[in-house]
Amino acid sequence: MASNVGGIDRTLRVVAGVVLLALGAFGPLGWWGLVGLVPLATGLAGTCPAYALLGLSTCPLARKA
């Protein structure tokens, strides 16, 4: 899969994923905190399957191609 998640988007996804996981582990979310794995994984991988299905991209390099 080609990269379709840009720099700021990747950073926000990783931060959101870590926050959700932390809230699940130490806060009120409990097992629902595992939802944080999705933004964390897509941020680290640099690809988002939902973006690919919708034809979206926040990666400036992917837009030029």
What does this structure look like?
It is elongated and about 40 Å long. With 65 residues, it is mainly alpha-helical. It has one domain (7-64). The protein contains 4 helices and no strands. The model has no long low-confidence stretch (mean pLDDT 92). The two termini are 14 Å apart. It has helices at residues 7-26, 37-45, 49-54, 60-64. 62% of the residues lie in helices and 0% in strands.
Task: Name a few traits of the molecule.
65 residues; mainly alpha; 4 helices
| Count of DSSP strands | 0
Global morphology:
elongated
Our estimate of the beta-strand percent is under 5%
Order of helices and strands: HHHH
Average pLDDT over all residues: 92
Computed structural class: mainly alpha
Number of domains: 1
The main β sheet shows up as: none
Radius of gyration: 13 Å
What is the CA–CA distance across the termini?
14 Å
Identify low-pLDDT runs: none
Total DSSP helices? 4
Helix content: 55-70%
Q: Quick recap of the structure?
A:
This protein is an all-alpha fold.
Could you outline the blueprint of secondary structure elements for this entry?
Layout: H1 7-26, H2 37-45, H3 49-54, H4 60-64
Helix pairs in contact: 1-2
